[in-house]
What does this fold into?
Amino acid sequence: MSLNHVRPWRDIYRRKSRQIMVGNVPVGGDAPIAVQTMTNTLTTDVAATVAQVQAAAEAGADIVRVSVPDEASSKALKEIVRESPVPIVADIHFHYRRGIEAAEAGAACLRINPGNIGDEARVKEVIKAARDHNCSIRIGVNAGSLEKHLLEKYGEPCPEAMVESGLEHIRILQDNDFHEFKISVKASDVFLSAAAYQGIAEATDAPIHLGITEAGGLVSGTIKSAIGLGNLLWMGIGDTIRVSLSADPVEEVKVGFEILKSLGLRHRGVNIISCPSCARQGFDVIKTVESLEHRLEHIKTPMSLSIIGCVVNGPGEALMTDVGFTGGGAGSGMVYLAGKASHKMSNEQMIDHIVEQVEKKAAELEAAAESAE
It folds into this structure.
């Protein structure tokens, strides 16, 4: 639950879900919403896959999913798990044996698709392997691979069919006294996804993994995911998220965090508040923000920075940020620290100076947090 009683219109009341563990990451309950991504390297290329997992973790990923399509990938998974800084979810399709092998290899979670994993007997074998190896399960319902009997019943992928699919497989897990599971009901259609997620959220207390599947490229997929996931998160639905982009997995993590940051649900790194720029700007806002985004990627401490081109909104925005810069005249602007005008700085030196001020503030915040522990 994110509460700000001074401004109640910012309050988000998260749906109550039970908590499970994905490796050492708590999912559900009052745990922070976890950010996931997925590698796109060949799993058998251990070095490339580990490098991608590490890059995603450095960008902030809490959990990373790895595809396990064949026996060779199962063997590689053991080494990947050993070298990964975050829990690994094994992505299993079609071959239930891969799920068993992945659990044996040390995967923290198995993602199984009910529509293609096989009959109930095979699912039971996967459940047994998960239990034996302290591995959780994600039931991954997808509109594009629903079971044949549900398609015949409903005529097409629809929210009711997706929810029914999820509940059928929840029943199988629960009948086998297995409760360490989360669930997703993904579709590439924002409306279908939203309706399915609302339905499953009402029908179970299981943790929910959010995603708009096959959302598209970096720009279109980001917008689609922000609309779909943002609205569900705003409603309090969602315990983990993955932004599915045809882009570098690191970009998925960045977008995921930005969605959560915009709703006040997670805080990591520098939140840059900047104007779109106009003829009033006292410096090149767009190039400045691009440079600062790159140079401040290493900052993990949550803090805010305002970069505004002129004095129309600049001072007001700076009042609410840790560090700010507002464009002025004669080739210089005003630097704000902790919401107050501090000193002038030339446009030429401004970027280096802002980086220095942000790093200094981040160090102060980190020291204060450590002393408070």
About this structure: The longest strand covers residues 136-142. The mean pLDDT is 94. DSSP finds twelve helices and 15 strands in the chain.
